[in-house]
Amino acid sequence: MKIVVTVKLVPDTNATKRIDPSTKRLVRTGLETVLNPYDEYALEAALQLKEKIGGDTTVTVFSMVPETGKEIVRKALAMGADDAVMLSDPALEGSDVWGTAVAMAAALKNIGFDLVICGGLADDGSTGGVPGALAEYLGVPGVTNARHLDITGDALKAQRETDSGYQVVNVTLPALVSVTMAVGEPRYPSLKGIMGAKKKSIVAMTAGELELDGKVGASGAKTELLEAAAPAARAKGQIVTADDGASGAKIIFDFLKEKKLV
Amino acid sequence: MRNVIVYVEHKAGQTRKVTFELATEARRLADALGGKAHAVALGAGAKSIAETLKNYPLDTIHVNEDGEVDSYLLDPTIDYMEALAKSVDSAVVLLPNTMLGRDVAGRLAARLDAGMNSDVTDIRPEAGRVGCIAPKLGGAQITTCAFKEGAQFGVVTVRPNSFAAQAGGSGAQIVELAKPAGKTYRMSIETEVEEASGEMGLEEAPAVVAGGRGLGGPEPFETLLRPLANALGGTVGASRAAADAGWVPYSLQIGQTGKTVSPNLYIAAGISGAIQHKVGMQTAKTIVAINRDASVPIGEFADLLVVGDAFAILPELTKLVQEARAHA
Ligand SMILES: Cc1cc2nc3c(=O)[nH]c(=O)nc-3n(C[C@H](O)[C@H](O)[C@H](O)COP(=O)(O)OP(=O)(O)OC[C@H]3O[C@@H](n4cnc5c(N)ncnc54)[C@H](O)[C@@H]3O)c2cc1C
Ligand SMILES: Cc1cc2nc3c(=O)[nH]c(=O)nc-3n(C[C@H](O)[C@H](O)[C@H](O)COP(=O)(O)OP(=O)(O)OC[C@H]3O[C@@H](n4cnc5c(N)ncnc54)[C@H](O)[C@@H]3O)c2cc1C
Fold this sequence. Notes:
Chain A is α/β, with parallel strands linked by helices. Chain A has helices at 37-53, 70-79, 97-111, 130-138, 191-197, 217-220, 245-258; strands at 2-6, 9-11, 33-35, 58-64, 83-87, 115-118, 142-152, 155-162, 165-172, 175-179, 202-205, 223-229, 238-241. Chain A has 7 helices and 13 strands. Chain B is built from 9 helices and 18 strands. The relative contact order of chain B is 0.12. The chains are: A alpha/beta, B alpha/beta. The complex binds flavin-adenine dinucleotide (FAD) (2 copies). One flavin-adenine dinucleotide sits between chains A (6-8, 26, 36, 38-39, 42, 63-64, 95-97, 100, 118-119, 121-122, 124-131, 223) and B (115-118, 136-137, 143, 145).
């Protein structure tokens, strides 16, 4: 069984982020970047499945990322993935969800898979649109927000979270799933994993190999960023110390009344 | 892009407030673009929700109570939506930015080869183009993104509580939407389990009372937070520390890897306000925090931080709110 996990490079949550006013793109120089937190859960889910299924199951990491983003792929390898494919090409910069899904689908068809596992949401664009769009372009069933996966032969049974609980869903492979954090805390790369990752293969792929017909990059996009600006900072409010429960409650109640919230 | 279509998220005819917000916004947008405002409700209960929606300023409400919509994952829904978008032509599709709405949006955008703008908090139609305002990068940047000139379709997910719902209007026509022909589906739903049925509306609740590690266990969520949330007409949320500890289901988690909420009032009890929590609630109109420690990060952005014991304050506050409501 061949499992492919998609991983994205994103700015660290704590980093100061800005968008270049002329290119309308995220300024990535000098920005601390990390493996998208959700994708660590996707990788964890894949590694758990590999341990459960055994046999010749492999876990491949796939990322559409500039060559400079290699460290996140290395981290995924150190966590336990077997090998990696990086789709890197200046032509891909500025792609929107649509172009990203088109390019990723072309690459994944090329790589081949039984199961694709995605994170639920990327920390920068955060549309959550890629997994569904990717399933469409791959022509395979797509199960989003899975918190538990079980595979018997080519039958996949998933627990899929909903706003009020979960659904048990049955699918035949090949398929695509995206996962939530409830699949389990991602493992840390071990020292052995970090050393071993250096010897694992990272295949480089370019846009030219994929016949993307001008669908990628800013020029191929269906959407266009017109403006970006930092929001007005939230003013620091009042800090009041309460002597006891009743006085604390009174402070809040009076405040809510003044704001017409009660 | 002229016509507007609202996707109606509902469960057996029970919908969310955001549906009415979208129905109202659809009218404004359609008028600005010189088109019509449509809505579509699918699956069991579609007709009853359509009757309710007639009170909103839509032109046409498309329905089909097809059981396949409820028994299979999204495939039948996407087939219906694709067919409708193509038949009403040149459309902007509005969906709620909820788990389900985002799912439908990504699939539909791909099916229509359309652009997608997500978690949108305002829409500005200008010169026939649709500009979408959305906080991105964890709220660090407010972006305006438009569909390219000449794009036939555009898919937009809207953050709940971004538009005011306003009933009234023309008395929409309800029409049956034909079932797309010749489809078979490869995913099926075996069972559906309800774990926290009251929580359907966390993302659009007008008030959220959230608890964190400082509450020390699962009980206070029911005995301290729930009664206050009820009194405020809102619902209960949590930090990741509380979800990780198993005190509440992950579906209540607010933040970077949880839900994004924009209520009128957010009360955080025993939550420190880590950046990953902040990005999920910083657009709340008013933020009140209760914390034992005066130097917590949440004090930097809360409108009011009361330094004290949540266990002592919450029951008293609930009493005051209940009394005020009884006299209102
Ligand atoms: C600030 C900002 C705002 C943006 N707004 C929009 C917008 O409104 N509309 C639009 O069309 N585009 C937008 N984009 C572009 C968009 O982020 C990219 O096209 C992106 O690759 C798709 O992203 P997402 O971040 O929404 O991914 P999501 O759909 O949130 O990601 C879900 C999962 O898909 C996988 N995945 C996503 N991208 C990759 C990748 N490059 N390589 C490997 N796996 C991946 C990961 O597993 C991830 O967890 C925006 C980008 C930025 C930086
Ligand atoms: C990749 C990643 C993603 C994450 N995503 C999220 C997310 O989506 N949402 C999220 O919330 N976190 C997220 N986190 C975790 C986040 O960094 C914090 O660890 C978490 O928010 C802390 O939760 P807390 O405030 O409940 O707990 P703590 O930080 O432990 O704070 C507890 C607070 O309770 C106070 N307290 C204790 N007793 C009382 C009392 N009796 N009365 C009043 N106050 C009291 C304490 O003073 C303290 O301030 C994420 C972290 C990572 C690395």
